Amino acid sequence: MPSVQTKIQSLRKIMQTEQIQACIIPSTDPYIGEYTPDRWKTRAWLSGFTGSAGTVVVTMNKAGLWTDSRYFLQAEEQLKGSGIGLYKTGLPGTPTFSDWIGSELSAGDCVGIEGAVFAASEAKSLIEFFSEKRLKVRTDFAPYDSLWKNRPAVPANPAFILPECFAGKSCRKKIREVVAEIKKNQANATILAASDTIAWLFNIRGNDVNYNPVCVSYAVVSENETVLFISPDKLTQGVSDYFRKEGIITADYEKIADYIQKALHGATILITPSKINYRLYSILLENCVIKETSVHPADLLKSIKNATEIAGIRNAMQKDGVAMVKFLMDLEKALANNETITELDVAEKLRTYRSEQALYFGESFKTIAGYGAHGAVVHYEATPESNAVIHPDGILLIDSGAQYFDGTTDITRTVSTGQVSETVKRNYTWVLKGHIQLASAIFPAGTVGMQLDILARQALWKAGQNFLHGTGHGVGCFLNVHEGPQSIRMNYNPTPLEPGMITSDEPGLYLAGEYGIRIENLLLTVQAKTTEFGDFYTFETLTLCPIDTRLIDCSLLYPEEINRLNAYHQRVRDRLTPLLSPEEAEWLKEQTKPIGY
Amino acid sequence: MPSVQTKIQSLRKIMQTEQIQACIIPSTDPYIGEYTPDRWKTRAWLSGFTGSAGTVVVTMNKAGLWTDSRYFLQAEEQLKGSGIGLYKTGLPGTPTFSDWIGSELSAGDCVGIEGAVFAASEAKSLIEFFSEKRLKVRTDFAPYDSLWKNRPAVPANPAFILPECFAGKSCRKKIREVVAEIKKNQANATILAASDTIAWLFNIRGNDVNYNPVCVSYAVVSENETVLFISPDKLTQGVSDYFRKEGIITADYEKIADYIQKALHGATILITPSKINYRLYSILLENCVIKETSVHPADLLKSIKNATEIAGIRNAMQKDGVAMVKFLMDLEKALANNETITELDVAEKLRTYRSEQALYFGESFKTIAGYGAHGAVVHYEATPESNAVIHPDGILLIDSGAQYFDGTTDITRTVSTGQVSETVKRNYTWVLKGHIQLASAIFPAGTVGMQLDILARQALWKAGQNFLHGTGHGVGCFLNVHEGPQSIRMNYNPTPLEPGMITSDEPGLYLAGEYGIRIENLLLTVQAKTTEFGDFYTFETLTLCPIDTRLIDCSLLYPEEINRLNAYHQRVRDRLTPLLSPEEAEWLKEQTKPIGY
Fold first, then answer.
1. Is omega for the bond preceding A485 within 30 degrees of 0, making it cis?
2. End-to-end Cα distance, chain B
3. CB within 8 Å: B444 and A451
4. Per residue in A427-446, pLDDT tens?
5. Which side of chain A, N or C, has fewer Cβ within a 10 Å radius?
6. Predicted structure pTM score
7. What is the distance between the alpha carbons of residues A352 and A405, in angstroms, rounded to a whole number?
């Protein structure tokens, strides 16, 4: 394999020929997903840096990688000898890569990007930024097929249909709902590129990326017809049959450009610029009238789970709880017996227990098992090098989840591995208090996540503490573990929480060099009551797994918080016990016994 | 005086000559204030409707008034025989006046407005809306001088300087700060029209409108010079001397158009479109480069009170608390003695007690004294017709405030007048809990009002209740009782709460036909602590007045809430007692005695 330096030199030759003075290589792909198929790991191929987030910029005489604090060490290691400088995003004094390009180039110079791997919203703001600096932007600069020997192909894994007993609604019905929304927005059609939106709409699933059970494709939904642009390799008999029944036309996924130019010429197309790549956007720009909406109606429909999906996730949660209980009991035993158990063992054991459950498909993200100081690294992933042995004198943070055909799970527990200080307990209790306060919220229709967020933080804030990630993200049904459009964060997001949405509740506290605490359940928004003041909503906690009571300082909780925790534990016990061995049931009974005040 | 019908016919004649098919007459004035000087009460003059909010639209064959639920009854009464239809804003099926105009007029027709009495932001969105409907808009249609016999003149009341012992900062220093902000925004100058912004910046006060101690004027602040466009009648010797010392140029207030055309031609002007009238905006549009900012830096500076202002408001609060205590004791006595006391008596007594305090200037808004069902009318104003006698069997809501030279007050208390039910107590306690939760919040720098708002509502929401007004508004220092840019509401407002800002904390509950509850104190944002997670802020409660403990159901409060209330009452007692007669002090002691749990 050629060295990074050689690859960059080859890229520069093409840049010179094409009169491009700077080239931006991001981590993103045409399908706006969290995980990139190998084919589009261009930045990793070019630079050697394999972290999930990072942007490389190459000019004629310099090259730089921009990445965040999660990857500072890894990037330094992987960039050694590459000639690529490391720009630490988030540190004071680090310029953004756009600012840096602005200062390196001169008016009239040209920046090259591959439009297909940028969200349209992202590319548009780059173009605007650079045009203010009087730089040109070419959005079709993609010389990687020729430079990248043995570049992986577009994933051609077979797809499959998610049966309606899990999806709860036919593809035809969903499309009818989307078409109604298109018309409401005074448009003729919409184009979809985000693989989870397409997976939901067509009841199709696949294996093209890690953790998200999706496949790469594009789709056009119009008043007249629905076309899924997808590699024929993916169209197994089951998929083809279902699509025939549902009236879906399929076409090779490269044909979408043609289709826009011919079938959609002059039409008004509804799109969400953050959910479509810039290549498609620019084809639309030339051929159609674009109508933009910041939240795509298909994503809003996807986020509101139907009764079948809700029944499925309740079932998946029961299985996931059983796996968690088996794992937690094992962990406790191993520690009691002084067995050596590491962070990687934790991930492996969890995977094993989950894989034994019915309808298991895979993990929903890479398990985070952080012992002691590792728990304070928010996106910690144990590696063979970092892998810590768990000792009976601290706390362990475990964030994990699974994809089942009937639902997606995501749970974080922080557990005591032995003696802990009163300070740890106090901090754990502040996090728990926030977790409970949010879970027991009641709020009127129309409330957005930013309004609720403080419920999860006020106890921490009163102690002068905080956590700098969001409190809650949407979760799909046998789909992406992170989905929109709703969220619960310190930032404003105008989408209200609606009945049927699943959102995480995961306050935390991270003390660098010491430990990390996070407690996460998934919450279903449900109707609470209707009064003269309108509809009020609340949450049903979906996750079923004990919360470590050994870490609680009861004196810091209100009676109503303790009552709620006890009631939760009662429900966990009731739902899981029938599926446990007598020993496990006994262990769970102990874990879930009421605490007092 | 000619009848409304005659006035409208005269207006229609001019509309016909000018080829205008619809004319909009709002309640607003050129100075973007809450209260309109008589000269600009054009809508009231034309229609006979005197409510504070309402818009009249006249077409060649129809006329309508749009107003909200506060004024439905009054409008029906006042519009009788006028031929003007009443459009009840907020009721389902009521079109907006813009929609109505859109449906009444035909493409190519022209809508006339007087740009000077619309905020630029408002006029711009009307123009955009009508242009989508293919209607023209003329923004200089103002035939009222000729139609309106004996139209009041532009207010010519003398102005006065607020001494620096109250303002805390010289006009010169404030201007220097504003100029720095203008430069930071890459502009050369700014134009101010909002009378409270100008009052703050120039340390000038006046008597041109009710309740707000301001005068009408315009100002230009540039790198080179500061010009106040103001009627010479207002320039008393003190004002002139101070301005001379501070380097302020004055000019007649009609000269501003000229000045923009000449002195500012080609310059970049920073403005806030919601804080400047459309007439000035359109002159800028023709002569300058406009730079828009949604929050004007002068308004942000104004909202952050300096140490002198804070000392002043603490002092004003002490005086206001004394007046409130005298009044509340009187009320209690009168009720005990079966004296007849009405809502209007309440307002009058309060005004009297306040006027006896040092540095009293006037009321800061019209007192709301709502007994029983009147308390449920959020903007209730007792009139001789509605004026209710207060009986010893219910609750009374009193929202009132004063302008003192050293500060502006705004306080609401809900007091028991005798026997009340357990339900009333429970509801009062939910409101009080929200009030206390917000007042005791601790939050990191950067937090906005929407994040805190739920603290004041969560107890009510859990009971299926809500209040549909904001929780908190900014308050000026011897200035408008309602000011921006911060707020605490269910709606998003991007301005964070900063140390030095004064904001109200006024949750409530309104049960139509029964009663209303509101508890309001003013809060000063102050530094709480600095930790590894950054700066945290909290509130100092400025208002000093007992909260009626007879209405509290202690079993619904957390111990920490009870402790906080007791500590507040201790502080009220400590601060007010030295200024009270022995009898009053005794009464206060009883009112503020600790409650238990």
1. yes
2. 65
3. no
4. 999 999 999 999 999 999 99
5. N
6. 0.94
7. 17
